[in-house]
Each structure stands twice: as structure tokens, then as C-alpha cells.
């Protein structure tokens, strides 16, 4: 009993000590576990906040990049200043909603007046801008201030991008606001400082946008938390430029540490004798959690420099690789070739088959490009349907052309898009480095010029940049500058008038105004040449208005039955063209019935509401619409049948062959009979022989024009011809 009594306290003491030590050890392990879990959770939370903040900045940058894709564009400047609502909807507003998800778009003129508005994919009245103006105005004024100062330069020495952005509250919701000027993408369009139109883009920060940000970092439960709701620790404030909090981005906090402790709870219950094993297990789990976090970071890094649709390098990685490649090539004495490639009429695929088909086409194109080039080369997607290829160690231009031809041949093979077989072509511009002085931006510019030439010369082909392309641009700029001076009254531009005769070849029915430019240095420039430059450089509206005003003013002072003036299809696409014509008629006092406007067959194929409305207004006022060069294009017979025109002009290419070609005579006869069946007038132009005249009159043509009858004349020479008096005019009209 004594032994049992002596051993009992010792046993209890040892037991108590062991239990105490075990409890202490367990407490240390548990305490350390919870401490480590808390630290891991806090560290993870900070990383999550950093990811969300970076993701928000990436989203703002994405809005800017998406906006820049349409704001730095010659067509944007031209069509916005022309007030082309349909074009702005298709390319600057509704398209931005459909393709990128921008919720609101406003276009402001140089005086900050709204000229176009879009909300949620629908063009709306510009008065909608007034509701948002108080919130948008500070950012707009900030950008105007930037534009009024000399351009700043970035780290690369290039002009900094003109953009003003902020987070703003609209309709009680936070939104990303980005304001950019509409700038020309080339020297083909000139724009005076201070005359810039503005493109305002708004993307609401809703759960969809937040989900896209969170999806990059594998965060769950991401949502917008308004100010009225309580905010947990897993939240990042949305702060505007004044420091005002507009709301929060919240998410379900990832707790790797707590999750680990919960998983280990059963093991900890029996861990008095297995503390060491539990510790090893804990360290192993921590290492796994760290590896998972590293994987998440690696994925975020990958997404920052790769295109999500194709997996190809994006523009940022492409530009970095191009600069590095040129640096290494200059040291090694090798050459680099840059290929710019984009799909021809990609927008048509999207419009007809839908955006999913367009995405499939982009992915399949990327795969074909990647499998066609070498592993050492780089193919990148720059955005939309634009791709770029960097070719290393290219011996000469012929090698780059061979690769370009292989790429084009691969892309000519049929694509399978949503169970449809589609054939697509592409255009490629090629530029090669030329020694150690080659600059990446200069190589990009040259490749872009070569791509433009490829598209201009027929698409589905490649062009290698040549020095004369720069020379051509310089010549175009010089002609553009001198044309502007001529239109400002510096002289040189004038109109000649070629009369149109009745079938007898003596009575004058009217005259066609033909523009001429006798340049003091270059001599007489072909009208087709400088008119094409005017269309390309945005001067066609001004040139066309001058010609219309000059011709109407001349006709109003004469007894001519009518005067015909050629107009460009681009003028008809101007929403204010009809009103411009009416204004000229009022100023000159010419009756609308004495004006004929000649345009080409391409107008009939556009199915453009703006063009159709303009033609309808003009015809209702009495102005007559003439289809010039008929038979050389692709006229719509249904359009002709609806009496959308008043006269057809048979092209001189058919008239020239009447003497010798039976098929030409058959075509001319068919065209005349078509005009008579449609009950519209018909004029044959380019009549140069008596045989041609006799054949045409025999076929039923009653209006003739050409050098046989009269060449284009100076105004005084035309008035001196017999048949322009009022009495002769009455006889000519009766015979016609």
C-alpha cells in the first residue's frame, strides 16, 4: 500500500507533467498553426488586393487601347467632321459596344458640342450627353488642356499618348471614363491643333467587368459593393481623381491558411504524440499553398503579355521582342523582316456570320500562321484581325517574300466556321531592317505603308516597302498642300464645259462641267489623279462644293437648259450633302430642274441609308440624278427599276468600239433599250466619228457628247456656240 501510495503521486505528477507538456506542445503547435494561417491569409489578402488593383488598371488600359484602335484613324477624323452618323455608329459607337462592351460613347466637336451619342449599343439623340456632361466635363477639360500644350514625350522619346481617364459615378454606378482626341493615323489627313474632335468612352464597372478582372487571378465571388453596404476585408475601393470613393470591388477572400488548419483539425486532435509529424505535414501543405500561389502569379504574368483569344504574344510583348530582335541583329550584322498582315473584309465576316464566327476565324488564322513560320520567329496578334510576324536572320527581300507567299497560300485554303466553308484572303506589308540604325517605330511605319499599298493594289497580295512609297506619300502631301492653296483662291483650278448635243448634232441640250487644274509647276494634272488625292485626304467635300458652286453660278448666267456636275460617292455619304446642294442653288439662283448630278454605279451597291435619303431629297426638289460610265460597274437593276435615277450615260469604252466590234454595238444597243424601257434619258459620251454618231442615233440615242461634236470649252467659247440662245433651247428641248 505504501508503494502504491508513493507511486501514485509520482505517476500523477509525471502524468500531469506529460499532459502539461503535451498540452503545451499542442498549444504551441496549434498556436503556431493559427498564427501561420493568419499570416498566410493576411499575405494572401494583400496579394489579392494587389491583383485586383492591377486588374482594374489593366481594364482601364484596355479601354484606352480599345478606344485608341478607332480614335487614331484617318476615317474617324474625316467621317466625324463630316457628321456621318451611320459611319460613326458602325465604327465608333455601336461597334465599340458590340465588340468591346463599352456602354456609352459620345463624340464631341472642337467646341465640345455633342455630334453623336450611343448608349448600350443603340445610337441615341445627342441630348443624352447633357445628362452626363457635369460628370464628364472635368476630364474633357483636362484633355483639352493637354492638347493646348506642346506634346510631351514618353520614356522612348516619342510623343506621349493624349488621353484623359478617371473613375466617375454615372446613374449611381461607378464607371471607367476615357477621353481621347480623334487623330489622323497618317499624313493623308491634316488636322489643325485645337480643332480635334473628342471620343468619349464609358464602361460601367459592373459585375461582368469585375468578373473578368477576377477571372485572371482565380478569385471567386467577385462583385460590386455599393457604398450603402458593409465592406469586408476582401475589398478594394474605387477612387476617383479627387479621392472620392465611388464603391468597392469585393470578393470571397481566399484563406489558404485557414483552409489548411481546418483540414488538419482531425489530425491535431490526436497529435500529442505526433507533433513532429503534424509539423512536417504542415510545412508540406504550406509549400503546396505557396506553389499554388506561384502558379497563379505565373498565370497572371502570362495573361499580361499574351492574347487571350489566340494565345499569341500581344502588342506589348511583340513591340518588346521587335526592339530586342533589332538590337541583337545590329550586333550580329543580320537582317530582320517585319510582316504586317490583316484579313481582307474581316468586318464582313462578323456582320454576316456573327462575332463567334469572327473569333473562330481569328483563332484558326493564328494557328495557321504559327504552324507556317519557324520556331525562332515570332507571330503576334495586334488586335482585331491584325497580325505581325518577326522573321530573324533574313538574307534578302526574296526570302521574306517567299514566307509571305506561303502565309497567303495557307490562308487561301478554306476555313470551317460554324459549319460553313468560308474562303478568306489576306494582305501583307513587308519591311526589312537596314543596318544598325533601324528603329523599331520606323520599321513598323514602313510595314504599315506597305500593307496599305497591298490593299490599294487589289488585296490578297503582299507588298515590300520601297523608298518610292515614301516618295509617293511626299508627292501626295505636296499635291494636297497645293490643292488646298488653290481652293483658298490661289488660282489654277477652273471648269471647262463640254456641250451635249441632240441627235441632229447641232442643237445643244446642255453641258457637262469638267474640272481642270493647270499647275504652274507640274502642268495640267489629270483630273482623276488630283480628285483621287482629294478623296484620300478628305478634301473632296471642299473641292466638290467649289465645282458645284462655280458650275451653278455659270449656268444661272446663261440660257443653257441644264448643267451637269460630277459628284463623288463620298459626297453622297455626307449626311448634309443635299442641304449643301440646296444652299448653292439658293445662292446662285439656279432652278433645281436645270441641275444634273452625275455619279458612278458604285453608289447603287452600297445600300446606304444616308446616300438613299440624299438622292431622294434631291430628286424630289427637281435635281436630276445621272448614272455616269454606265455598263462598266455592277449596277442593281432593281434599283434602276425603282426610278432612283433620271439618266444613264453610256461609257466611252463601248462607244469607241462601235465602228469595229459587233459585240460593242450589241452592248450599246442593249443599254439604250434598257434606258428606254426604264423611261429614263440616255446620253452616249465619247462620240468621235460620224459612223459612231449614225449608229447611236439609229439605235434610239437622242443625246450625244464627244470630240466629234465639240471638245470641252472655256465658258466664253461655249457661249459663242450657236444653239445656246433661248429660241434654240426651246427647239432643242422639243426635239429631245
From TrEMBL:
<dbReference type="InterPro" id="IPR029787">
    <property type="entry name" value="Nucleotide_cyclase"/>
</dbReference>
<protein>
    <submittedName>
        <fullName>EAL domain-containing protein</fullName>
    </submittedName>
</protein>
<feature type="domain" description="GGDEF">
    <location>
        <begin position="334"/>
        <end position="467"/>
    </location>
</feature>
<dbReference type="InterPro" id="IPR007892">
    <property type="entry name" value="CHASE4"/>
</dbReference>
<keyword id="KW-0812">Transmembrane</keyword>
<dbReference type="Pfam" id="PF00990">
    <property type="entry name" value="GGDEF"/>
</dbReference>
<dbReference type="InterPro" id="IPR043128">
    <property type="entry name" value="Rev_trsase/Diguanyl_cyclase"/>
</dbReference>
<keyword id="KW-1133">Transmembrane helix</keyword>
<keyword id="KW-0472">Membrane</keyword>
<dbReference type="Pfam" id="PF05228">
    <property type="entry name" value="CHASE4"/>
</dbReference>
<dbReference type="InterPro" id="IPR035919">
    <property type="entry name" value="EAL_sf"/>
</dbReference>
<feature type="transmembrane region" description="Helical">
    <location>
        <begin position="264"/>
        <end position="283"/>
    </location>
</feature>
<dbReference type="InterPro" id="IPR052155">
    <property type="entry name" value="Biofilm_reg_signaling"/>
</dbReference>
<feature type="domain" description="EAL">
    <location>
        <begin position="476"/>
        <end position="726"/>
    </location>
</feature>
<dbReference type="InterPro" id="IPR001633">
    <property type="entry name" value="EAL_dom"/>
</dbReference>
<dbReference type="InterPro" id="IPR000160">
    <property type="entry name" value="GGDEF_dom"/>
</dbReference>
<dbReference type="Pfam" id="PF00563">
    <property type="entry name" value="EAL"/>
</dbReference>
Amino acid at each position: 500500500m505504501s508503494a502504491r501510495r508513493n507511486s501514485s503521486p509520482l505517476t500523477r505528477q509525471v502524468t500531469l507533467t506529460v499532459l502539461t507538456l503535451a498540452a503545451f506542445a499542442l498549444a504551441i503547435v496549434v498556436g503556431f498553426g493559427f498564427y501561420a494561417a493568419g499570416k498566410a491569409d493576411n499575405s494572401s489578402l494583400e496579394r489579392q488586393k494587389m491583383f485586383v488593383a492591377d486588374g482594374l488598371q489593366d481594364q482601364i488600359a484596355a479601354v484606352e487601347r480599345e478606344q485608341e484602335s478607332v480614335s487614331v484613324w484617318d476615317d474617324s477624323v474625316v467621317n466625324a467632321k463630316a457628321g456621318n452618323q451611320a459611319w460613326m455608329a458602325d465604327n465608333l459607337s455601336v461597334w465599340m459596344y458590340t465588340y468591346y462592351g463599352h456602354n456609352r460613347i459620345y463624340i464631341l466637336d472642337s467646341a465640345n458640342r455633342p455630334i453623336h451619342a450611343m448608349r448600350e449599343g443603340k445610337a441615341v439623340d445627342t441630348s443624352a450627353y447633357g445628362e452626363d456632361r457635369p460628370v464628364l466635363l472635368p476630364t474633357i477639360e483636362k484633355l483639352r488642356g493637354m492638347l493646348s500644350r506642346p506634346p510631351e514625350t514618353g520614356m522612348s522619346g516619342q510623343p506621349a499618348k493624349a488621353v484623359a481617364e478617371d473613375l466617375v459615378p454615372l446613374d449611381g454606378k461607378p464607371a471607367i471614363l476615357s477621353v481621347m482626341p480623334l487623330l489622323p493615323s497618317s499624313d493623308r489627313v491634316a488636322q489643325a491643333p485645337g480643332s480635334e474632335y473628342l471620343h468619349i468612352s464609358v464602361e460601367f464597372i459592373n459585375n461582368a467587368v469585375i468578373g473578368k478582372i477576377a477571372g485572371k487571378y482565380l478569385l471567386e465571388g467577385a462583385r460590386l459593393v455599393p457604398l450603402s453596404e458593409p465592406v469586408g476585408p476582401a475589398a478594394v475601393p474605387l477612387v476617383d481623381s479627387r479621392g472620392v470613393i465611388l464603391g468597392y470591388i469585393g470578393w470571397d477572400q481566399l484563406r489558404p491558411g485557414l483552409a489548411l488548419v481546418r483540414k488538419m483539425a482531425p489530425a491535431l486532435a490526436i497529435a500529442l504524440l505526433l507533433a513532429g509529424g503534424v509539423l512536417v505535414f504542415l510545412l508540406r501543405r504550406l509549400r503546396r499553398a505557396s506553389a499554388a500561389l506561384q502558379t497563379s502569379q505565373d498565370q497572371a504574368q502570362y495573361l499580361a503579355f499574351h492574347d487571350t483569344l489566340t494565345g499569341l504574344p500581344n502588342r506589348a510583348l511583340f513591340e518588346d521582342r521587335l526592339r530586342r530582335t533589332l538590337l541583337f541583329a545590329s550586333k550580329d550584322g543580320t537582317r530582320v523582316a517585319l510582316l504586317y498582315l490583316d484579313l481582307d473584309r474581316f468586318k464582313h465576316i462578323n456582320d454576316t456570320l456573327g462575332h463567334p464566327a469572327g473569333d473562330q476565324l481569328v483563332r484558326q488564322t493564328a494557328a495557321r500562321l504559327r504552324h507556317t513560320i519557324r520556331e525562332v520567329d515570332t507571330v503576334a496578334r495586334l488586335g482585331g484581325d491584325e497580325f505581325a510576324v518577326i522573321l530573324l536572320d533574313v538574307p534578302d527581300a526574296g526570302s521574306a517574300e517567299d514566307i509571305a507567299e506561303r502565309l497567303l497560300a495557307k490562308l487561301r485554303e478554306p476555313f470551317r466556321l460554324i459549319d460553313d466553308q468560308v474562303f478568306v484572303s489576306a494582305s501583307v506589308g513587308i519591311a526589312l531592317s537596314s543596318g544598325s540604325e533601324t528603329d523599331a517605330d520606323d520599321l513598323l511605319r514602313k510595314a504599315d505603308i506597305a500593307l496599305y499599298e497591298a490593299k490599294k493594289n487589289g488585296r490578297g497580295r503582299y507588298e515590300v516597302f520601297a523608298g518610292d512609297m515614301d516618295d509617293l506619300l511626299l508627292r501626295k502631301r505636296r499635291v494636297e498642300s497645293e490643292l488646298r492653296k488653290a481652293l483658298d483662291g490661289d488660282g489654277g483650278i477652273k471648269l471647262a464645259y463640254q456641250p451635249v448635243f441632240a441627235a441632229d448634232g447641232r442643237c445643244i441640250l446642255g453641258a457637262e462641267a469638267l474640272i481642270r487644274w493647270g499647275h504652274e509647276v507640274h502642268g495640267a494634272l489629270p483630273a482623276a489623279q488630283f480628285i483621287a488625292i482629294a478623296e484620300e485626304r478628305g478634301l473632296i467635300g471642299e473641292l466638290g462644293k467649289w465645282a458645284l458652286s462655280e458650275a451653278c453660278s455659270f449656268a444661272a448666267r446663261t440660257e443653257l437648259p441644264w448643267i451637269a456636275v460630277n459628284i463623288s460617292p463620298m459626297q453622297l455619304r455626307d449626311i448634309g450633302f443635299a442641304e449643301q446642294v440646296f444652299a448653292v442653288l439658293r445662292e446662285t439662283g439656279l432652278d433645281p430642274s436645270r441641275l444634273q448630278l452625275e455619279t458612278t454605279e458604285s453608289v447603287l451597291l452600297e445600300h446606304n441609308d444616308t446616300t438613299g435619303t440624299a438622292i431622294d431629297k434631291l430628286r424630289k426638289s427637281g435635281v436630276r440624278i445621272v448614272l455616269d460610265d454606265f455598263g462598266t460597274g455592277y449596277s442593281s437593276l432593281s434599283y434602276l427599276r425603282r426610278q432612283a435615277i433620271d439618266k444613264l450615260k453610256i461609257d466611252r469604252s463601248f462607244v469607241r468600239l462601235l465602228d469595229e466590234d459587233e459585240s460593242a454595238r450589241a452592248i450599246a444597243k442593249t443599254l439604250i433599250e434598257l434606258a428606254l424601257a426604264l423611261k429614263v434619258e440616255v446620253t452616249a459620251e465619247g462620240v468621235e466619228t460620224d459612223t459612231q454618231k449614225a449608229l447611236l442615233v439609229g439605235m434610239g440615242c437622242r443625246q450625244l457628247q464627244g470630240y466629234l461634236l465639240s471638245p470641252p470649252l472655256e465658258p466664253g467659247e461655249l457661249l459663242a456656240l450657236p444653239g445656246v440662245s433661248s429660241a434654240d433651247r426651246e427647239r432643242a428641248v422639243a426635239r429631245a
